[in-house]
Design brief:
The structure holds 2 protein chains of 2 kinds. Chain A is an alpha+beta fold. Chain A has 2 domains: about 1-40; about 45-175, Cupredoxins -  blue copper proteins (Immunoglobulin-like), CATH 2.60.40.420. In chain A, about 15% of the residues lie in helices and about 35% in strands. Chain A has 1 helix and 12 strands. In chain A, strands 1, 2, 3, 4, 6, 9 and 12 form a 7-stranded mixed beta sheet that branches. Chain A has a 3-stranded mixed beta sheet with strand order 5-11-10, with no helix packed on it. A two-stranded antiparallel ribbon of chain A has the order 7-8. In chain A, a hairpin with a 2-residue loop joins strand 3 and strand 4. The model of chain A has no long low-confidence stretch (mean pLDDT about 95). By secondary structure, chain B is mostly helical. Chain B has one domain (about 5-540): Up-down Bundle (Cytochrome C Oxidase, Chain A), CATH 1.20.210.10. Chain B is built from 16 helices and 4 strands. Chain B has a two-stranded parallel sheet. A two-stranded antiparallel ribbon of chain B has the order 2-3. Chain B is globular. Classes of the chains: A alpha+beta, B mainly alpha. At the A-B interface, helix 1, strand 1, strand 8, strand 9 and strand 10 of A face helix 2, helix 6, helix 10 and strand 3 of B.
């Protein structure tokens, strides 16, 4: 084993090349996932006034929950507030593209749906939007995952994923856990 | 003997006293979250405790340790008196007053906002002001470090700055940059709100400003560990530092790439578009480079040591290393933990993949393992290494095994704590809750794993107190070191460098590059908040804070 200065520099250069290759592979994988597979974080940068969102517009109480739009698009709207989700259960079909839209009138919240890659912060002043396809049926836990006050631990809801043929919206295109 | 040992000891004892107390809170929090019934398990106490644990570990332990160790390095590596000792004591006083303000507001239940603040929730203004005082103290420290190196260079023209000091100043400059974000958030947004001068906060802006600080602050905590890897571990192992240049390069890369990457903490946030997130995800990949270079260089340094001690074969040198020395053992354990938490970090930083783990126990596990594990175990090793120089007492035949036991229990405890957390996080266990409803069949199986983590937490508390006891022992034994003895053995490079390029002997060039990178990374993400202020969120005071 020799440790001449030349050996040291050569070994460090080789290792640097290996490191550069490793970083390049990671970057390429992320790039492919983002561009080809559309694996992007939820980032719509859409603003909403937290002081008035419950009074007018899409986050008024009567408009919350799951709705099939005229063009067939399925959207669920949820308000995250200290210390509950409204509604606290939403129903969605398995295997179809769905959109979750959330907003907060008070403080920072966040959601994940256990067992899926649905995950977003809910920041007052902004609308959070997640596109996903649920692959398994059942009642999935949807807890608040960001500290929002002393009641944070009690704040959770459920996503009821039903087989496509059991997803039966009413005449207005609405579907809820109760129906 | 170190001239300003009182100054160094005063900093390190504040750090370690707070550390021991905060470790107890951490274990109690694990107990509350487990299926076992814990005392005082109300949400109010739980979140006050989480705030105290985070503030103590992330702000007080780290800042006081970095400052105390920095003074030690400035004096011993440069081999001359520390400039501005009076200012250093002033900075210490600011830090202590600030820490007391923070602790009092937390203990009286008026600051339960966790150490990451979460506006529009606000705590007592005095909680934030206390933290600002700690930061101002650390700014004075940064200035002293920069001045100490500048004066040494003035008196030693053309000489390479000793690596330990070069790294310390890299950290000081990085820290000045780092704290700008949180200082702006606190001074412009949060403190006025806490005093009631403003009624709303632009939360997107406050999260963006905090993210500026949020990643680089972790590298501020981590620098002492890397300084020990490069300048202490090779000497303790009986070898040479494989390449000093690689050390300089790594520290420069930390300065450059730990700052413009904070947006990776906001991948799941709605207020930024994918473009900014992608750019900073890419820059975050570059942060892996200095760590991977370090792993190679230090492993090679250890190989030299092992072969000098008679080790042969591909792996025989590993067994030949002096594992009975705390610095060598701690470095080995730190590297072992680094494989797990480094791998976890690669997943966290990977842009879209972050959705799998964001705000789950996986993240808690990741930063406990990398900071609490890899970094803090090196804090212990540094303390064991420099304490004899500070107190004049060498560890005896009983003390060394006790130090080794402490390091082992810490590493094992940290792995027992965090490996179940990683697993539960992947299965969706979410963060920052005081208790789980284990009656829910979906999560009932989590219970036993949380108890396993609790066992890890108890081991960590035992290790923390053994650490404090080990250090206290080094104050009590009779004096054994003569005042003239060398305070600490810094590693000698395999090929000593007579001269280094100016770029690797100072920070003028790198400081300009940091500015460019920060403009690329943060100017555009911040600008929209100034041009089009978003509708503010109404202030929510926590726990009657006023």
């Amino acid at each position: 084993m020799s440790w001449t200065e030349h050996d040291v520099v050569r070994s460090e250069l080789r290792w640097s090349l290996a490191v550069a290759g490793f970083v390049a592979i990671l970057f390429a994988l992320t790039l492919v996932a983002a561009l080809a597979l559309h694996r992007n974080p939820p980032s719509n940068a859409e603003r909403i006034d937290p002081k008035t969102l419950h009074l007018t517009g899409e986050f008024t109480e009567s408009n919350l929950g799951t709705r099939v739009e005229a063009n067939g698009q399925i959207t669920t709207r949820i308000v995250a507030t200290q210390f509950a989700f409204v509604p606290n259960c939403v129903v969605l079909p398995e295997g179809r593209e769905v959109t979750l839209r959330l907003a907060s009138p008070d403080v920072i919240h966040g959601i994940l749906v256990a067992g899926t890659n649905v995950n977003t912060m809910v920041v007052p002043g902004y609308v959070s939007q997640v596109h996903t396809v649920f692959r398994k049926t059942g009642d999935l836990l949807m807890p608040c995952h960001e500290f929002c006050g002393f009641g944070h631990s009690q704040m959770w809801a459920r996503v009821r994923v039903v087989p496509g043929d059991q997803f039966r919206p009413d005449a207005q295109g609405r579907a809820s856990c109760g129906s | 003997m170190v001239r300003n040992r009182g100054l160094v000891l005063a900093h390190l004892w504040v750090a370690f006293a707070v550390f021991a107390a905060a470790s107890v809170l951490g274990a109690w929090q694990m107990w509350v979250r487990s299926p076992l019934s814990a005392p005082f398990a109300e949400p109010q106490t739980y979140f006050a405790s989480v705030t105290a644990h985070g503030t103590g570990m992330a702000y007080v332990l780290t800042t006081f340790f970095v400052m105390g160790f920095g003074y030690f390095v400035a004096e011993t590596a440069l081999g001359r008196d520390l400039p501005g000792v009076r200012a250093a004591w002033g900075a210490y006083a600011l830090g202590v007053i600030g820490a007391i303000m923070a602790v009092v507001t937390i203990m009286t239940g008026r600051a339960s906002v966790l150490y990451t603040f979460y506006p529009p929730m606000t705590a007592s203004a005095f909680y934030y002001i206390g933290l600002v005082l700690v930061v101002v103290g650390s700014w004075i420290w940064s200035a002293i470090m920069i001045i100490a190196m500048a004066r040494w260079k003035r008196d030693n023209p053309g000489q390479p700055v000793p690596l330990a000091m070069f790294a310390t100043v890299a950290n000081a400059i990085m820290w000045l940059w780092t704290t700008l974000g949180v200082a702006a958030e606190l001074l412009i947004q949060v403190i006025p709100a806490a005093f009631g001068w403003t009624e709303t906060i632009d939360v997107g802006l406050s999260r963006t400003l905090f993210s500026w600080t949020l990643h680089a602050i972790v590298y501020f905590w981590l620098f002492p560990a890397y300084i020990a890897f490069y300048t202490m571990a090779p000497a303790a192992a009986g070898g040479r530092l494989y390449s000093e240049t690689m050390g300089r390069l790594s520290f420069v890369l930390f300065l450059l790439y730990s700052l413009p990457v904070g947006l990776h903490h906001l991948f799941m946030d709605p207020e930024h578009s994918t473009g900014f997130k992608f750019i900073q995800s890419f820059l975050t990949f570059l942060v892996t480079i200095p760590t991977l270079l370090t792993v190679f260089t230090i492993t090679a340094s250890f190989e030299i040591a092992g072969r000098l001690r008679g080790g042969t074969g591909l792996f025989g040198w590993i067994r030949a290393l002096p594992w009975d020395r705390p610095m060598v053992l701690a470095t080995g354990l730190a590297f072992f933990m680094l494989w797990f938490c480094g791998g976890g970090g690669l997943i966290n930083m990977s842009y879209g993949m972050n959705a799998m783990v964001h705000n789950t126990s996986w993240v808690t596990a990741h930063f406990h393992l990398i900071f609490g594990g890899t970094v803090v175990i090196m804090y212990f090793a540094i303390a064991y290494e420099i304490w004899p120089a500070l107190t004049g007492r060498l560890p005896d035949a009983v003390a060394l095994p006790s130090q080794r036991r402490q390091l082992w229990t810490w590493a094992i405890g940290m792995l027992i704590l965090t490996l179940p957390w990683h697993w539960l996080g992947l299965n969706g266990q979410w963060r920052r809750v005081a208790h789980f409803d284990y009656a829910d069949p979906a999560i009932a199986w989590w219970g036993p794993w949380v108890v396993v983590s609790l066992i890890g937490g108890v081991l960590l508390v035992m290790s923390a107190f053994l650490f404090v006891w080990n250090l206290a022992q080094l104050h009590e034994k009779p004096k054994q070191i003569s005042a003239a003895a060398a305070p600490v053995a810094y590693a000698v490079p395999l090929h000593p460098v007579a001269r280094v390029p100016a770029a690797l002997n100072g920070f003028a060039l790198w400081n300009v590059l940091v500015r460019v990178l920060m403009i690329v990374a943060y100017a555009w993400p911040i600008a929209p908040f100034a041009v089009y202020p978003s509708p503010g969120a109404v202030i929510h005071r926590v726990g009657g804070a006023g």
